[in-house]
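User: Hi! Is it possible to get a structure for several chains at once, not just one? Here's what I have:
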Amino acid sequence: DAGITQSPRHKVTETGTPVTLRCHQTENHRYMYWYRQDPGHGLRLIHYSYGVKDTDKGEVSDGYSVSRSKTEDFLLTLESATSSQTSVYFCAISEGNVGGYTFGSGTRLTVV
Amino acid sequence: DAKTTQPNSMESNEEEPVHLPCNHSTISGTDYIHWYRQLPSQGPEYVIHGLTSNVNNRMASLAIAEDRKSSTLILHRATLRDAAVYYCILREIRSARQLTFGSGTQLTVLP
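Assistant: Yes, the chains can be modeled jointly so their relative placement is included. Here is the combined structure:
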């Protein structure tokens, strides 16, 4: 999607290893979000950010941490990956509290 | 968070209008009504949002009930590319809180 890029697009990793997913935006939007999507659960929020170094937990934050040192980058880290974290991860951005979100194309993560 | 209720699935014929309903009886005065759709193997895509008045854009129209307890997304002429899961979501204006996605409506468009 224009203005938002996720990397990598696909990743396979082993249980117990750390993994970092990157979300990069060129829109200078204040808000950034990480969601995961699993069959039967829909989209669930992991963490979100409302400014540089300002982050908060979502509904499924256990096992994940985030960092936002620059407006354009929001990193999601799995400290020690587990098989239950196999999922598709989506990043989203929003300019303010009213308008729509723009989602990235997703990262498919497989933990073996 | 205020919740929304949508039918699990709907079918429509190609080139006919589609009305996707959403109930949100516990909506508060500061909740915006958002609609997103998700095509297979893609991220969700913003469709439209509104507060009280009906809204139109190039993708769809949003009809909001006078009491705001329900809304309808209208696709004026469905195409096969409109087959997707459609999510109706409430977004609270006063905070940075996230959109909470429900299970949505799976729209099937028949040729």
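Chain B touches chain A through 22 residues (CB under 8 Å). The two ends of chain B are 38 Å apart (CA to CA).

User: Great, thank you!
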